[in-house]
Amino acid sequence: MIFNRTILKMTILLVLLGNIVNAINYAYAEEVIAQTHKLSKGDIKEFVENTVPKQLEKYNIPGASVSVVKDGQVLFTKAYGYRNISEGLKADSNTMFRIGSVTKLFTWTGIMQLVEQGKLNLDDDISKYLGNIKIGGNYKEPITIKNLMTHTSGIEDKFSNLFMGRDEEIPPLEEALLRDKRNRIFKPGEIVAYSNYGTALAGKIMENISGITYEEYIENNILKPLNMNRTTILQPASAKYDNVSKGHMYLKGDYKVFEDAFTQLPPIGAISTSSEDISKFMIMHLQNGRYEDKVILKEDTAKLMHKTHFPNDKRLPGICLGFIEWKRNHKRIIWHSGGTALFRTLCMLIPEENVGVFISYNSPNSDKARSEFRQKFLDRYYPYNVEKVKPLENHKERAKNYEGYFKEGRTAKFNSDKLIFALSRMEKVIPNDEGTLTFRGRKYIEVDSLVFYEVNGQGKLIFQEDENENIKYLFQDFEPHEAYMKIKWYENPQLSMIIFSLCMIIFLTTLITKFLQNILWKKNEKHRNDRKIEKLILLISMFHLLFPIGGVLGFVMEIWINSRVMTTGAIPLLFKLSLLPPVISGIITIITIPYVIRAWKNKDWTFNRRIYYSLVVVTSLIFIGWMYYWNLLGYFR
């Protein structure tokens, strides 16, 4: 017994000693990591130079521009690759890159200056400042300045009018806004629905209050005080500056150089800047509005701007006043990304570390590179351990309850981009056999009712139910400016494409059958009594088929001739014209209906012909309804 007790004591002692040693080793390991990857000029240079050149090669990107700041100092700024690969022109830290929606941070900084001066209030109704610009919709609640800044205005979005050709003259901001009427599709303050239009409205408010153009305001109140001499809202920047990067696409194994399109609404994405210049803007925000001896914002104003003002769910990161929030690697990050047709950019600040990071690529191939760079930076300087989570006890049985399609709140309801949004901003939640869910390529497991954590990752999904306990919303932490809504069965994009395809098959079969009758088959009926209806049915099918034929030809010709579609997202004229033939088909369908009804009543024609002609008429009515639902009937809205 004494021997056994002695062994037991020695075993316990050894275990305790082992744990102490392990704890010391673990602490030492943490210290070594901190020392090895302390964010310094030398280490960040090593990191960037081992990362970015490899990305350029891996993702076929011609050039990139990087800037890193800390504690009010520029730690690193450099550009890699080419600003114009066809001419062999290298990029450097003064090369100006398009930054897309990172421009919005300048717009919101200007708005906060006006709030600080007492010329605006965050809770003001924006209609007070917009004059003739009206927002449609049936909601009585006013849209406030804060709604614009947190993307909760409820205004529908649109893709196809963001950019314009370089041969076109950029209209005054008010003219562009009046020409592009929008409606509210959600109650203000209800849900996040990212809105370029809302930011453009803020730019117009800035103009109306200051009495000068948006461009002049940003230049005088932000760029000049910060000595950002290599930053401009001018489009194209090359009209005034040299050393401006071109955009590039990697097509058929080779790089093609393009001029980036103009942004029709400058407050949302017109700025071009260099990595050296943007470092001043980041330092200013990290120092709560101050840069050297210049005060762009008062400290309290800057802190208010950086604070979270609207989370989709209080358990998730949310939207600040302009900035978007992340929580990754145990750090709170405020950030904004940007994209034009040809550039991709990220600007992120880590306030508690007084660190800012900027990277911009001059090719649309760079979405993965941008995300990869961000995560590698965070993992190197702020490492974390993935926490194992305990699944909800009956998570396997519950997983099926979440299956379905979800559409992003950023969508269209009254304009013709409705179908584009349905096809491009619809995501499916897929339950897996092991009880996890797959969403946007990542797996999540339920840890609490309606709450999911990413498997071997940091992400979170949170579902919300309606009053009948049906799934209504899906929120995720990776993109807090995106909120998803469970769709109705008739909004299913697959169903929509099936309906379209079946309609086209029936119309095409009608024409092919008539062709075979005329060319290959001998006519036995010289005096059939259905000649008139047959012609009407053929006209219905022909005019409906002009829509897909004209639409496809429009895009092919536009890309072949001048590639405008690729750089501006503009809708070709031939596509717009192809929306008219279905209206003609609709009129002919209405004319045809009485003939079909009479044929059934009088038992005219053969039974098979009555069935087939009726099928074409019904299909025509369904297709007209399909076109109407997607706002494509007759003209492009």
Description:
There is one protein chain. 41% of the residues lie in helices and 18% in strands. The strands form 6 sheets. The chain has an 8-stranded antiparallel barrel. Mean pLDDT is 89; it is low at 1-35. It is built from 18 helices and 23 strands. The chain is α+β, with helices and mostly antiparallel strands. It has 4 domains: 1-36; 43-381, DD-peptidase/beta-lactamase superfamily (Beta-lactamase, 3-Layer(aba) Sandwich); 395-490, no CATH class; 492-629, no CATH class. Helix 13 (493-519) packs across helix 18 (607-629). The protein starts with a helix and ends in an 8-residue tail after the last helix.
* Count of the separate structural domains: 4
Number of helices: 18
Could you state the CATH homologous superfamily of the largest domain?
DD-peptidase/beta-lactamase superfamily
Beta percentage is: 15-25%
Low-confidence stretches: 1-35
* CATH classification, class level of the largest domain: Alpha Beta
Shape: globular
Distance between the termini: 91 Å
For the biggest sheet, the summary is:
8 strands, antiparallel, barrel
- Named CATH topology of the largest domain: Beta-lactamase
Structural class: alpha+beta
Rg, please?
A: 30 Å
Query: Residue-averaged pLDDT, rounded?
Result: 89
The CATH architecture of the largest domain would be 3-Layer(aba) Sandwich
Counted beta strands: 23
Q: What is the spatial order of strands in the main beta sheet?
A: 16-17-18-19-20-21-22-23
Helical fraction: 40-55%
